[in-house]
Amino acid sequence: MADDNKKLYLELQMDELKAALGVEVDHAAVEDNKEEKIAKLKESVENKNKAKNADVAKLYENAAEYEKELEGFEKELEIINANELKDIAIVLTQQLPDEDRNYAQELKNIILAGWTHFVETEKTHPVEQLELIKATEFSDIVEQLSIAYPDYNGDFETSVREILVKRLETLIAIKKEHIEEEIEEIYIAGLKPSFVKRIYKEFHGIS
User: What is the sign, positive or negative, of the torsion defined by CA atoms of 171, 197, 194, 62?
Assistant: First the structure.
């Protein structure tokens, strides 16, 4: 009786695996070596599922990349808002270490672009201020501008910080828009974004 039950169980298991693979069951052809054949069928099912998951996970690749970039921009904005300007480059290097990035130079380039806009487009600042910024390290920009222009009708620190914040807020808005576009594409494909994201994480071993 035990052997009959085992035989029935193996046949049922074979039926389920065959159904998963979308093929017909031929019990006579698989009478011998059922366990070995079932193992092979299980492997086939697993491979088929992996292939399906790979296709689903691919749908979330762009969104995942945008989410990673968004997280980085939001962290940078948090650091800029929470620290004195002269310390920002150091804090960024400590909290977001990246050997390919020179935060002090990046920040200076952003200020240069913003001040160029002031000078050439808005025409609200003298070109000499722009030249001073070019010759100054980022951490010293506010101090040097304040020394050179003591009667400046404004606040150099506020202006510098606003340029940095505005740039990051713009980048954050762009990344959020990109993510929304990717999510919409997933809906169009007839899938739920939460499901696709879960498969993406499982496929890539992300907790």
Answer: positive
Indicate if 108 and 177 belong to the same structural domain: yes
Which two tokens mark 6?
Answer: 């085992």
Three-class HEC string of 35-81: HHHHHHHHHHHHHHHHHHHHHHHHCCHHHHHHHHHHHHHHHHHHHHH
Three-class secondary structure of residue 133 per DSSP:
helix
Domain that holds residue 106: 61-204
Domain boundary among 58, 76, 93: 58
90-95 long-range Cβ contacts below 8 angstroms, 24+ apart: 90/139
* pLDDT digits (tens), the chain, 207 positions: 445 544 554 555 555 555 555 555 555 555 555 566 556 655 555 556 666 778 888 999 999 999 999 999 999 999 999 999 999 999 999 999 999 999 999 999 999 999 999 999 999 999 999 999 999 999 999 999 999 999 998 899 999 999 999 999 999 999 999 999 999 999 999 999 999 999 899 888 898
Task: Note whether 118 and 126 are within 8 A (CB).
Answer: no
Judge if 53 and 134 occupy the same domain.
no
Largest CA distance in the chain: 101
Q: Do 135 and 192 lie in a common domain?
A: yes
